[in-house]
Amino acid sequence: MNNAVPATVAPDPGRPLVIRGGTVLTMDDSHRVLTGGDVVVVDGKIAEIGIGADAPPDAHEIDAAGGIVMPGMIDSHRHMWQTAMRGYGADWTLTQYFVWYYLEHGRRFRPVDIQVGNALSAWEALEAGVTTTVDWSHGLQTPDHARAAVDGLRSAPGRFVLAYGNIQAAPWEWTALAEVQRFLTDLRDVADDRLGVQLAFDVTGDPSFPEKAAFEVARELGLPVTTHAGVWGATNDTGIQQMYDHGFAGEETVYVHAASLSTDSYQRIAATGGSISVSTESEQSAGQGYPPTWQVRRHGIDVSLSNDTSVWWSGDLFSAMRATLGADRAREHLEAHASGETITSSSLRAEHVVHWATRGGARAVRRPDLGSLEPGKTADLIVIKNDHSPVSFPLLNPYGHVAFQAQRADVHTVVVGGDVVKHEHRLVGVDLAALRRAVDATVDHLVSEMGEETWQAGMNPAMPEGEGILDNPYTYTDFKSDATREARGTIFGEPIGTDG
Ligand SMILES: [Zn+2]
């Protein structure tokens, strides 16, 4: 069982590892797959990959038979601080999100609330096999908030990039503050391979391009910029043109969503070597635009995957891979049907989304030592294996298994830099009880500041005016009679079982 007590004790940090007998998805340039393969880890690096590989005598052995060994996944855009409100905005649109966070309540988050959200999110990522996460941290109203964000990230043994942002001020304002620049410089200078730093802000398309000053700060400090681009009603082609025309669109730039842009913008992104972070679950239900993988494919732009925020969605990339395949294929079929055609072969494959969740993420954070299993690379890897689950076999198509069959609970082992941080389905060294108390305190703080009524109203947005149920010529039965209605019950005021 997933919640059974582990059969063995997690190996001490630094001890060599040998992961034996798994289906190894190397995600190297040729996407080599080994059946019954071994991965040897020494000093935090991958020492060897092969069948019957030699391991140091003191290596801790992990039995991966029947399972999949693959690189740790990389989430290129997540507002980790919002994890303290897990699921609160499940029925929101982007407009409701903007009103709640940007206009009405985002200011209520204290430094401790940012820290707690980040800590929860950091452990959640590791639990799901996400070993590197870009924390798109746009709740940093003060440098104290930023220090708290770093504390939250540092409390878990994963890799993170703090993408510093502040939705409570304009980017040209907060990036100009000496205290903020000092914080960024200090963090840049102490940043190790567990914690990187970037700037995170959006370009609204104001013709005077006030964001230019923020880009200049980023350039001066040598920090990459990540930006929400192509977000319906918020950011558009003008912002891309401005970035391009002023030389701020580069290989290091990550465009999040990029969902409602013109061909011209995709061409500018492609020509300058930028990459796109696709948050399919987010684009599908918040409304930034149609998930753009179909566009991106046509322009040869690099893709990574992301989850955006746990205010709505799960922080695991299994969900992202699944949603991305579904959205790409749904659109392809719909377009074809509209012209009377039939798609007989899908353009987007399971292997593509596994690549985006690993190599694509490594490309986005510019860490070529991550994202693949090859000798000499950093040992961030996961084992997907669940001997007690009927879903674990047969294992016929490993990419398909990862993309459509596996879930976070099937993540058996997570290794970051050679250290086991999830061992036999259990996180190592986490104090979930303390984390729960801290998160509860943040929720209590928000509810008491807002009042119970406002809190509840925020979680339950009004329904739109319904279109009602269409007239139906087939109405000669008493299916919808009062007696039937009573017997069946109702949902949304209509008898259950009469959809459409
Ligand atoms: Zn976002």
Short description:
The chain is of the alpha/beta class. It has helices at 94-105, 111-127, 143-154, 171-174, 178-190, 212-221, 237-245, 263-271, 280-286, 293-299, 317-338, 350-364, 398-405, 432-450, 452-459, 482-488; strands spanning 17-25, 33-42, 45-50, 60-63, 68-71, 73-78, 130-137, 159-164, 195-200, 225-229, 254-257, 275-278, 302-305, 381-384, 411-416, 419-423, 426-427, 490-491, 494-495.
Distance between the termini: 42 Å
How many helices?
16
By helix and strand content, what is the structural category? Answer: alpha/beta
Q: Write down the Rg.
A: 24 Å
Proportion of strand residues: 15-25%
Give the low-confidence spans. none
Characterise this structure.
- The longest helix has 22 residues, at 317-338.
- Strands 1, 2, 3, 4, 5, 14, 15, 16 and 17 form a nine-stranded mixed β-sheet that branches.
- The protein starts with 16 loop residues before the first strand and ends in a 5-residue tail after the last strand.
- It has helices spanning 94-105, 111-127, 143-154, 171-174, 178-190, 212-221, 237-245, 263-271, 280-286, 293-299, 317-338, 350-364, 398-405, 432-450, 452-459, 482-488; strands spanning 17-25, 33-42, 45-50, 60-63, 68-71, 73-78, 130-137, 159-164, 195-200, 225-229, 254-257, 275-278, 302-305, 381-384, 411-416, 419-423, 426-427, 490-491, 494-495.
- Helices cover 36% and strands 19% of the residues.
- It is built from 16 helices and 19 strands.
- It has 500 residues and is an alpha/beta fold.
- α3 links the parallel β7 (130-137) and β8 (159-164).
- α12 crosses α13.
- The protein is globular, with a radius of gyration of 24 Å.
- The protein binds zinc ion.
- Zinc ion binds next to loops.
- Residues 77, 79, 136, 228, 256, 308 line the site of zinc ion.
